[in-house]
Specification:
By secondary structure, the protein is mainly beta. It contains 1 helix and 13 strands, in the order ββαβββββββββββ. Strand 7 and strand 8 form a beta hairpin.
């Protein structure tokens, strides 16, 4: 339901409920290689080239679950900016802000906020982790060929494989095959670094 101006592409205010959105269909229209099926509801305002809104999203995106993800977003120049994003993504709880830029190849994305119980195996590398704390994440690409991600964080209650830390801070970079603990990365166990 909603209202539009005389030209739908220039002005609208719409409440929506989409079930399901097959991202293969979106891929055919945009050329962006996305996969999954999402259910979404919320509201959008603005025009086709410049809009903002709110969404509640559930489903599968790139083979990964999205559960009760709430977002306030804006869109222009092929880029989504998320003033807030909260919910379970990659089977971890996220609460922060971010962006997703489809205007560059490979695509770029970022996130700043907190995570609870992030296991990197849900994103890509075969490394069992349990990260909880503040993170700054930047990444590129959705395909195995283009995928790269960097995380810089201050984490509490951390597990990396069979190793447990009271605190971890610093940068980590990875693709789908390798992970690099960068200079400045440090883990603290009790009173030691």
């Amino acid at each position: 339901s909603g209202v539009t101006s005389k030209s739908f592409v220039r002005g609208f205010d719409i409440d929506y409920a989409l079930a399901p959105i097959n991202l293969d269909d979106v891929r055919k229209i945009t050329g962006v290689k996305l996969q999954g099926v999402l259910f979404a509801s919320g509201s959008i305002r603005g025009g086709i080239d410049n809009l903002d809104g709110e969404a509640l999203v559930n489903g599968i995106f790139l083979g990964r679950p999205f559960d009760s993800v709430e977002a306030a977003f804006s869109y222009s120049d092929k880029e989504f900016r998320f003033g807030s994003i909260r919910g379970d993504i990659f089977r971890a709880h996220f609460d922060g802000s971010g962006s997703l830029n489809f205007g560059v190849k490979p695509e770029e994305y970022s996130y700043v906020g907190t995570v609870k119980h992030l296991d990197l195996r849900e994103i890509g590398p075969v490394l069992a982790t349990d990260f909880t704390g503040s993170v700054h994440l930047k990444g590129t690409g959705f395909s195995p060929k283009d995928f790269f991600m960097a995380i810089d964080g201050n984490l509490d209650s951390v597990r990396i494989e069979t190793y447990y830390f009271d605190k971890v801070s610093g940068p980590v970079e990875f693709d789908l095959e390798t992970i690099h603990f960068m200079p400045g990365f440090q883990g603290r166990y009790k009173d030691t670094y």
